[in-house]
Amino acid sequence: MKRTTSQNIALYAGVVAVCAFLLFPIYWLVVTALATSAELSQLPPTFWPESPQWETFTKVWAERPIPLWLLNSTLAALGSVALSMFVSVLAGYSLSRFSVRGGHSLGLFILTAKMLPATLLVIPLFSIFRSVGLIGSLWSLVIAHSTLIIPFTTWMMKGYFDTIPRELEQAAMVDGCSPLSAMVRVILPIATPGLAATALYAFVLSWADYAYARTFLTNEQGSWTANLGITTMKGEYVTDWNEIAAAAVFIAVPIIVIYLFLERYLVGGLTAGAEK
Amino acid sequence: MRRGKLIDLARPSRQHWLGYILLAPAVILVAAIIVYPLIISIDLSFQDVKLPRMGAPRKPFTLENYQKLFSSPEFWQTCWVTLKLVVVVTIACLAVGLGTALLVNNRFRGRRLARLAVALPWAVPEVIATVIFAWIFDSSFGLMGWIFIKLGLANQMVAWFSDTTAAFWVVATTMVWKGYPFVSIMTLAGLQSIPEDFYNAAKVDGANAFQRLRWITIPSLMPVLGVTMVLVTLWVFRDFSIIKVLTDGGPLKATQTLSIMTYNEAFGFFKFGYASAVGVITLLLCVVASMAMLGRGSKAMY
Amino acid sequence: MASISIQNVHKSYGALNVLKEFSLEIEDGEFVVLVGPSGCGKSTMLKILAGLEPASGGRILIGGRDVTDLAPGDRDIAMVFQNYALYPHLTVRDNIGFGLKMRGVPAAEIRRRVDEAARILAVEHLLDRRPKQLSGGQRQRVALGRAIVREPQAFLMDEPLSNLDAKLRVHMRAEISALHKRIGVTTIYVTHDQIEAMTMADRVVIMKDGVIQQIADPDTLFQKPKNLFVASFIGSPGMNFLAAAPANGAAIRLFGKEVPVNVNADRLMQAHSNGGIVAGIRPEYISTDGGGTEFIVRPSLIESLGSEKYVYFDAGEHTFSGLNDEEARKGLIARLAHSSPLAEGQELKLSFDPARLHLFEGKSGEALN
Fold first, then answer.
1. Which residues, including other chains, have CB under 8 Å from residue C86's CB and lie 6 or more apart?
2. Tens-place pLDDT, residues B267-283
3. B77: in domain
4. Distance between B22 CA and the closest CA of chain A, angstroms
5. Predicted ipTM?
6. Which residues of A touch B189 (CB under 8 A)?
7. Closest residue in A to B261 (Cα–Cα)
8. Rounded CA gap, B184 and B176, in Å?
9. Are C9 and C59 in contact (CB under 8 A)?
10. In this structure, is residue B274 part of a structural domain?
11. Which end of chain B is more exposed for a tag (fewer CB within 10 A), N or C?
12. pTM higher than the cut 0.80
């Protein structure tokens, strides 16, 4: 149906207004990072910095342990993604293809585990990690983040495997594969896009964690993750908002880049994970 | 022939063995890192423990934590705050998210870019979002205070985080900004699954744009919206980072939800037994709330 | 190439019995079709034969070797699936050669045999493409290529033509038949389409609810169906059924006449008390030529197919509703070559030869003659 010109103008105006409104906080973050300290301590606020202070970024990168924080976040994410994906690819495949006794109940339990509050689980995990000496180590995050990730990824992978016809394995088995080699040689290569999307989603989940990092790593500065590190910058006597904003940009950028490049996959994974 | 015949999983009578083998790592891991800790925390909630030591002898069984909890005004205030926050944030997220999705679902140039943009806050880590809003609502030079003065809503800069009502709305605003893109993403996916023929049929029947929205779009979206509502509710219910960083439950516990209370009792006051009791109640409420919302036919969520 | 012996194979999921005792001896080089409506157990039988599902009991021998619990890959069989099941991440060449590669055949040998298979099926120019880039018919050929390249003892085909459009289906049907004649591999073919069964098979196995109804060559099936189900399943349009009453002696009463039949009176009386006598006559054996048993009808609908006409009329007092409602509602059909003008609602004299009548017992459905 054709729209009239006035309808078109209204539509574009609406879209621009909504986008501007919703994206304003992100714009404000960047402006803050680029403003001078003087501009940030005056009213009215600065909407467009006179001379953008790009040095703030280099200064923060050099003076604060931001590279270390980013590295720690990445390591924790890679570790928990690897552990969770290993477990949930296998389990998702089993749930999709085999009617294993008790499999359905396990699947439902894993699904309900999504409802577990992290603030409840963090208590026993803290006790356990304290007794085995994992407090302060990134390994504590690898395990703790897996409790967040597995409920999502298992069902995302099951949903993805469900879309691949069973006849492919059957053909492979007639062609001489064992059930395991049919999975490895035929199904996993076909499932690569689904695997990638699921792994990325898991990465984002791990990267976003604050509760576990704060609980297990606060006393061990060398293990601080990005999210934990930046909150310590806020707590100081004088908050340098431009520095905090610059640090925030560094931390948000990796995830935003992942999102922009792989939005289609991520969104597919998110909705699949929610509906499945 | 080719294969070692000792354990030939390809035999018809054994093909299903692989199902068990593949499930085993998940069973073991879930048992070790979810079920076992969960049992410990339930166990802790029935003991009078401050900072437990694994391997230490178990304290005697007691209902004291729960008795103390239910007779504490703080707990009931926390429940009330949690309920208020859940209702306000969920409704606002659904309204903003649905509206945005319907808007960018129209055909126009740059539609793809717009869809990417409206979902962007979803990708911003919660802690970062919180930092941004903490600055926007800064009591000395924050943008929002200045806007309130300009609009004549305030005479001077507002101390957002010292006022119980103001702090609540700051927390709610931050959560809505972080939470609405999820609703948009889900709604857009739901909109795509509505067959074009429905709209064509409605146009043939002479339905106008509003009638099509009311009688086709919204009913078709209901299943998706229902699931989304539950997920948003659960998220608000259990969220930790935003409130912890923004207000830490203050002022005067006006923004303290059950999650924050659980955490602070454990790691602020080192009352692990009491904290576990709060956490167990939180979990029970989550389960009850989601079951109530989804009804017995909760398969939609799966 | 080999003979196949299926002995008392059955399959149940808990209390659900999807395949009752199934026994069948298949000769070397034979083309056997399993046919029946969906859920009749034909695909289950094929999967058991392929080793993709375990049987609950019974034995299977291929070429004299017991393969009952042998891995699918060790049975030396090839299978063609309804959705072709081509590996989407491999090229056509690798798809066809996958089975050989899994068996450790040297690369040069694989290359030679894939080329040969591709030549036989005329897909040589497609070898470097991926399945996604192929049309339905091309995919079907590649799937066949994947089967023949292995030179197996037997081909198993699971509704291989049902994803093709009508025209291509007829064409591929002929091609599969020709391929079978050419390489002569024992073939077991599953379909729900009785025309495929009738045109391709040396022998047809008709199944319903997990039970074999009849095993016979196509002509026998058509002329001597063992029961009501087989009679109704084979032929298009299907056989007409009429509820009939016994008359005096070896005769039944139809359209107010006594029609002599080759079944003795006692048997008729027995059938009459066991759900009634059902008479069946195929539409093509009803004519306007006169002679035999004559009766007058008023056609409710006349469909012209150009070369012939389908005349629909009501069965009246003889309406038989034993099969299903739809069957009863459509009434009776006569298939007439006659091109003289016929009109709906106008009286028409039809006749049939009593020798063409099939008689069944109503309750058991068993054929009486």
1. C92, C95, C131, C139, C142, C143, C146
2. 999 999 999 999 999 99
3. yes
4. 5
5. 0.88
6. 267, 271
7. A119
8. 12
9. yes
10. yes
11. N
12. yes
